[in-house]
Amino acid sequence: MEKIFFRYRDCWKKKGFITSLLLSFLLAFLSLIFNYLSNIYTGSSLVKPVGDILLDNLPAFNVNFILNEGVSTFIFLLLFFVFIEPKRIPFFFKSMALFVFIRSIFVSLTHLGPPTGHIALDPNDWFSWLAVGNDYFFSGHTGMPFLAALIFWREKLIRYISLFFCWLFATSMLLGHLHYSIDVFAAFFITYTIFEIAKKLFTKDYRMFHEEKKL
To answer: CA neighbours within 13 Å on the CB side: how many for 41?
Structure first.
């Protein structure tokens, strides 16, 4: 705990850190609002499902437990790894905000009906308010842990944990018929592009993220 305290103290002293920190939280908050409004818009559009060569030949399984408990576990671990190193916070939250903004635009542009045979999600899932409609392209469950892996690529433990959850969620999306296969596979390519954009937009934060530890 003492080491973490000194890390925060050192970051507070850096010029522009507090401004960047507050901006990262603001962008994250605005992105969630934008995402919610985007889902309401797409949820009001009643469209038919389309064919999917993979899902059409794959039986549907109930993956509620994996998603509910898995997402909660992953978010807890991810936030823990972020907040123990305050220099990571600005770039992490700005990158995630950019991811949510861009995905919300894709969702608004692409209206697809629920895949045939999709399972019903648990209405008591406390993340359900983030997805209220036909938010299929592209898969956030796949893209977000992959983005985390890219952000923490130099940290092997966090990278492997993120990639594991990425694989787990991507597989669950397909097994539960919760996403079309193109939603899952395209998420990797789009997410990598988002990461590269974030590196260009938030260069100072990215450099600070990878500064060597002093303690």
So the answer is: 14
Region of 71 please: left (phi>0), alpha (psi -120 to 50) or beta. alpha
Distance CA 210, CA 90 (A): 12
**Residues 176-201: pLDDT tens digits?**
888 899 999 999 999 999 999 999 99
CA–CA gap between residue 111 and residue 190 (Å, rounded): 18
Nearest to 119 by CA among 44, 74, 70, 68: 68
**What are the tokens at 210?**
């990878």
Q: Phi first, then psi: what are they for 141, rounded to 5°?
A: -60, -30
Six-digit token pair at 34?
């934008």
Rounded Cα–Cα distance for residues 168 and 172 (Å) = 6
Q: Can you say how many angstroms the Cα of residue 71 is from the centroid of all Cα atoms in its chain?
A: 10
Whole-structure pTM value: 0.89
